[in-house]
Amino acid sequence: MPRRGSLVAYGVTRLVMAFPMLLILLTVVFVVLRIIPGDPIYALYGGRAKPSVVMAQRHKLGLDQPLYLQFANYIAQVFTGNFGTSLGPIFGGQNVMDVIMQRLPATVELAVGSMLVATIIGISVGILSGINRDRIVDVVGRLYGTIIFVIPIFWLGLMLQFVFAVDLKWFPVNSRFDVSIPPPATITGLYTIDSLLKGRLDAFAVAVRHLFLPCLTLGLVLSGFFTKTVRANLLRTAGADYVEAARARGIRRRAIVMRYAFKNALIPVITVLGLEFAILFAGAVLTETTFNWNGMGLLLVNSIEVQDYPLIQGTIIVYSFIIVIISLMVDFLNGLIDPRVRY
Amino acid sequence: MENRRTLAGVLSWIGLGIVVAFIVIAVLAPILAPYPVEGPSAIVAPKLQPPSLTHLMGTDESGQDVFSRVLWGAQTSLEVMAIGVVLALAIGFPVGLYSGYSGGAVDRIILLVMDSIYAFPGLLLALLVAVMLGKGVFNIGIAITVIYIPLYYRVTRNQTLSIREETYVEAARGLGARPWTIMWSYIAYNVLVTIPVIFALSAADAILTAAGLSFLGLGIQWPTPDWGLDLSIANTFGDIGNGVWWTSFFPGLMIILLTVGLSFLGEGLNDLVNPLLKKERA
Asked: Rounded to an integer, what distance in angstroms lies between the CA atom of residue B40 and that of residue B190?
């Protein structure tokens, strides 16, 4: 048995605690999709389909069984990764999990790129704001943090498209890749990584150009959160005893900010990362719709449009898993950096 | 130090001004809007006219006046927000009070459930509810409610937990007051004091979420004027790609103005109310 307070014990405890959270999330999804207004087939078809069609669909999805059986089936489906087959016109007959896995890399690429933009811009503005406390730079930085955070992602995306793609023509308006050249062969599904692995620098450049505006859009909106957190914590650590001590020893201001204050100001930033990821995935759905980006978010929106129930359910479940895994990783990272949070 | 207090004060006044202005616009939309927005008479001009003196914000894909739709949109937005946030408060507050006061296993279970819901991206949850309930102002209000219940619950519960240990609550308990009386007569008011900040900030977020739902085609049904919906239509028709910026620029600008107003109000209130910040400042 690992020692109490050790990293391993902490990790194991968090892992065990993640299960109820996942179960609750899955139950919430089940409740919303199956119980709220009757059942999904009614919600999706309304009164438009023939009763016989509705009955057949309900039977096919097992919706004519008692609820407890449906729930058992649902949980079994989730943990075997078998979400059935798509009913929609686009992916009809294909395995839901396969379809989602095809789309996942696009979302991962967008998410990683946006996070990169958000961290760089958010932390820089936060530091500038924090070390210039109450001066004009700080006021501008604080206003930036508040305003950028409430700008609708889709509006910002459309405006950036207008300026940088339509007017200046520096970047493509939307989509993941140029139609005129073939995308790189699929290895990871991430166009940037795949093109580099294949040594196709031309394809890499195209992929990055397509990534730029969507990542900038989502990254800018996410950066507001970082800005606020970094600023607030920099102010807090700036008054701490060890910073005072460093100052007394005559260490230069710049070195104090970077080595002492900033490092400790970053710990709470990692804590809010979990929240940031939740916003990131919701934001990705909007960004993907704005930029016609073929990821999971657009898949979800499209399956809602064509009333593809198994695909809607599958996508949401995969999102739940991603959220739980990320919150686990963030907690673990926290425990790694700051021994005080371990149990 | 004085300077900072002033900034927070100024921001909350600006925020309050913006919010009040939007309420006035929403109420007076029938008088202020130069053109009708629903029915056959709403098609007032050739489609996609750029902004001009007759159409201040141009016309959209169906030949409607964007300015009139934008004014009426304030009504839709505020309605959805009000339904969503007020219902969330009405549910989250009593549950949080009960959970925080009674403690024990019940508290832990409710907390776990609420935290799990809170961890899920709000927009996705609202989207799921919206899919099942269908479009419309009230349904979207409900979808919004679902995501903010955990927020109000959490704030109320945490606040209740600390107030529960106060001496005057202890005294009331010693005098034999019933839990119900203690919760509602002694604790509730002191928790409610912290709510306006959360209310303003969640209202801003609710407006963004509702606009997001409409943008994804799940929120408000055309021809009801709604900012998110107008942006969605502009995006569907690829207006930006055709150089038509006014059909998306103006509705989005309204969303930003209103949410910025609510955020300024919320953050200003927070700076003024939050004793922790005050202590740090001193």
From this structure: 53
The pLDDT value recorded for residue A212 is 94
Tokens of B176: 């034999």
Which among B223, B184, B213, B282 is positioned nearest to B42, based on CA atoms? B223
With a cut of 60, say whether residue A300 has pLDDT above it: yes
At a CB cut-off of 8 Å and minimum separation 6, what does A282 contact? B121, B122, B123, B124, B212
The phi, psi pair for A198, rounded to 5°, reads -85, 0
Alpha carbon A271 to its chain centroid, in Å, reads 15
CB contact under 8 A, B245 and A281: no
Q: Which of A21, A146, A161 sits opposite B267 (nearest CB)?
A: A146
Provide, as residue numbers in chain A, all residues whose Cβ is less than 8 Å from the Cβ of B249: 155, 159
Going from N- to C-terminal start, the domains of chain A cover 22-80, 104-342
Res A11: pLDDT: 82
Q: How close is the nearest chain A Cα to the Cα of B76, in Å?
A: 17
Quick one: pLDDT at residue B149?
95
> Are A159 and B117 inside 8 Å of each other by CB?
no
- CA A77-A78-A82 angle, to 5 degrees, is 50
State which CATH number among 3.30.1490.190, 1.10.3720.10, 3.60.110.10, 1.10.10.60 fits the domain covering A104-342.
Answer: 1.10.3720.10
| Closest-approach residue (CA) in chain B for A155 | B252
CA distance A168 to A315: 36
